[in-house]
Amino acid sequence: MAERPYTLLSCGMSIDGYLGSSNGKRLLLSNPADFDRVDGVRAGCDAILVGAATVRNDNPRLLVRKQARRDERVAQGQPPTPIKVTVTGGAQLDPCADFFATGDCEKLVYCASATADTARDRLGGVATVVDGGQPVDMARMSEDLHARGVRRLMVEGGGAVHTQFLTADLADELHLVVAPFFVGDSRAQRFVGDGQFPWNPDRRATLAEVRRIEDVVLLRYALSDRFRHE
Ligand SMILES: NC(=O)c1ccc[n+]([C@@H]2O[C@H](COP(=O)([O-])OP(=O)(O)OC[C@H]3O[C@@H](n4cnc5c(N)ncnc54)[C@H](OP(=O)(O)O)[C@@H]3O)[C@@H](O)[C@H]2O)c1
Asked: Is ligand 1 within 6 A of the CB of residue 129?
């Protein structure tokens, strides 16, 4: 079997399990101390992946923010900030989005086969477009990332992407941050959708760490034998 990167899923959710609001507005689930922790986790990875809906809705930059962390990466022969990766079926992504427009790093778009040519026309100037299958197969994408040198992958959502990584048993570690409020609207995106997850009442995941970070709590789960406590 081809190798895949060590894969860490990271996400913030409300007490009732939502990733965001129902009105499309970006919801601040974390706090400054936790954002800084996430920045540190990013700095330790070779690539950061989000779904296309997150690129469209949140317009994230996905950069390592702290200069000292960027300097350290450069001193180790790495680019200042990890490779950015997204996945799309419809290829409706704006080449001017911050995902593409910011960061001195490689950008990869894994696109469904049917729209790969459209994606290359639209995004070829700002990213490398890879035909990922129909729809994009997350295992195949992980193996392709490994072949491109990615050894540690951070997946930052949203729910559709987390669901596929988890149900396909492609995750080694999960960082779940719980914010101290409710969203209370089922039109909002949940952390995960329906699916058959490898962890269930008969096969419980391993809770590796619980950390209070001001008003949020970080729950860290070990999801594979490859889990490394850092
Ligand atoms: N709280 C947090 O930590 C956090 C983190 C990230 C995001 N979010 C929130 O989550 C929301 C988005 O979550 P989401 O679940 O709706 O979307 P998502 O996971 O960000 O992206 C879903 C999109 O990715 C593409 N995609 C996913 N799997 C694919 C496959 N196998 N093949 C081809 N394309 C695939 C599709 O793009 P196309 O539609 O282009 O075909 C799909 O619509 C955002 O609004 C954001 O605010 C929260």
From this structure: no
